[in-house]
Recover the amino acids of this structure.
């Protein structure tokens, strides 16, 4: 089985930000040119990961387990991920936690991050056979709770199909993102816009 057909949490996040990022990384297998802002974010994420066990103050009243860098693969869904942290609450439900080396959107989660959490919930439910109805995104300035709805899961499943179709057909998506958004650290902007 072609591993490029397996969808990851980063694929979901990137597809929402810009489908071309997924195309360039999965179909063309081009490495991004990291600009300073993105490189700084990657470095901050690594520092956050090193400190996570010490820093995780869980918002759940009775946590039965914490699993860091939780590797999970679903052959059935053709999806895999390394989830920063998975908590198990007192009811046996699983709660994914994603660490971001950036500030929140005024105390709220960015949409691409919310759907990345929803993707993790789908994987956890499929493989572990346990409910997953919420997750958390730990930004540098806030811990944001995300309620995972059936609508979010349906949207993520559609994205997964769209990503696989893009990879199988090797179809370059049109540019749907403003240049201003690309200046935020996209490692492929030089391909789309020549700078």
């Amino acid at each position: 089985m072609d591993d490029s057909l397996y969808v990851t949490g980063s694929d979901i996040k990137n597809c929402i930000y810009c489908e071309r990022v997924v195309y360039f990384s999965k179909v063309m297998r081009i490495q991004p040119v990291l600009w300073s802002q993105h490189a700084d974010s990657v470095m901050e994420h690594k520092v956050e990961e090193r400190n996570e066990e010490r820093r995780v103050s869980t918002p759940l009243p009775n946590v039965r387990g914490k699993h860091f860098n939780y590797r999970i693969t679903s052959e059935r869904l053709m999806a895999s991920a390394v989830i920063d942290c998975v908590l198990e609450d007192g009811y046996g439900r699983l709660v994914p936690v994603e660490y971001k080396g950036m500030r929140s959107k005024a105390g709220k989660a960015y949409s691409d991050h919310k759907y990345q959490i929803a993707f993790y919930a789908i994987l956890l439910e499929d493989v572990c056979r346990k409910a997953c109805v919420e997750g958390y995104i730990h930004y540098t300035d806030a811990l944001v709770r995300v309620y995972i709805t059936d609508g979010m899961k349906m949207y993520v499943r559609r994205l997964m199909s769209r990503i696989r179709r893009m990879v199988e057909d090797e179809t370059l998506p049109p540019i749907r993102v403003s240049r201003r958004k690309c200046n935020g650290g996209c490692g492929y902007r030089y391909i789309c816009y020549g700078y």
